[in-house]
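Suppose you are handed a protein chain with no further information: no name, no annotation, nothing but its sequence. What can you learn? This example shows the usual starting point.
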Amino acid sequence: MISFKESIQLLGQNTEVLHCSQVKTEEAVGYLLQEDVISKIDMPPFDKSIRDGYSLLAEDSQAIGNKIKNIGFVSAGECFSGEMHKGECVKTMTGASLAKGADCVIMVEDTKEDKELGLVEILKKLEPGDNICSKAQDIKAGDIVVKKGTVLSVSNIAAIASVGKETVTVCSKPKVSLINTGGEIVSLGGALGANEIFNTNGPMLKAMIKEDGFELEHYDVVKDVEIEMQRSFEEGLTSDVLLISGGVSRGDFDLVPKVLKDLGVQVIFHRVSIKPGRPLYFGKKDKTLVFGLPGNPISGFLTYLIYARAAMLKMSGINNDSRVFKEGILGKTFVQKDATRRHFVLVKIEKKGMASYLHPSTNYESADIKTLSDADGFMEVEENVSVIDEGQRVKYFTWK
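A reasonable first move is to predict its three-dimensional structure. Written in structure tokens, the prediction is:
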């Protein structure tokens, strides 16, 4: 068994960034951008109205009640073919180009139109530039729209799309295989037999993989039978990451390490001095990372966050520790009997002003799913710490 610090070091040393690839702009959210996106056009490419109203000269609005002639109409995607002069206006919809000769737009609610006479009464004073977005006001041709090294957000996608770029170069994300082991698990929707339980880890881990934006390309449930495991693991080893849930402890039916060894997987570590999650397995075959997550749900949940998720983020080029620690205040004294391992304790988080008060869940085991569901995060308790007094500052991280 190795220490927590050693396991994190070995994880980093054995995880490499994947190659670059081209993806469609609308599918690139969450990816690490591997190029500067440079605009080839001005944005907007013309002077445009940002309100429904009338294009006009600001000087025609200085006298409230002034009436000017409406000489046309233009909607988004169209252009007024004529030229507007003093004393005239053109009805202009949001997104439409500004009529030639105008220098502002008055909102329709600040006017009164006489359609029979073709006149528009001005009810508000304007300044040049009001309610318009000038050509190249947002982006000029040659500008960097989004910089290389950005983890693309939805707003980044909007900016890239606005300059017409169809695909972007990004760091690839790992493709994942997930395999559940266990003779007692039953798929959701099935009927429980004697001594059987519904499959909790499969749906939980599938949801976590999806939430993190990784592609699950293979999923399987296998019994604790070597030949079945071998067949399924072999297929899973074609992915960038193979996640195996269960079968990594020391029971008679915990066959995962043996089967992986037979398939040529090099074990990097097996068993870590943490609570929960001690049976964790980490190995590698060629460039495929293999994680044997403990079968108990809280253990599997925690080790996915700390190890599998962190590795997959790094493979995606994102050097972001999945455990983003914050500092909270302990709401009640915490005591633990076994202080030999680093302990991650489920907590409820209570906000009081700017402070976060942590209330540890006690007397739970790593299979207590309801406790996990009700919790907000994990408090970290380092090795050899038996007691933390109420009011002390402690580290925690949350998945919410």
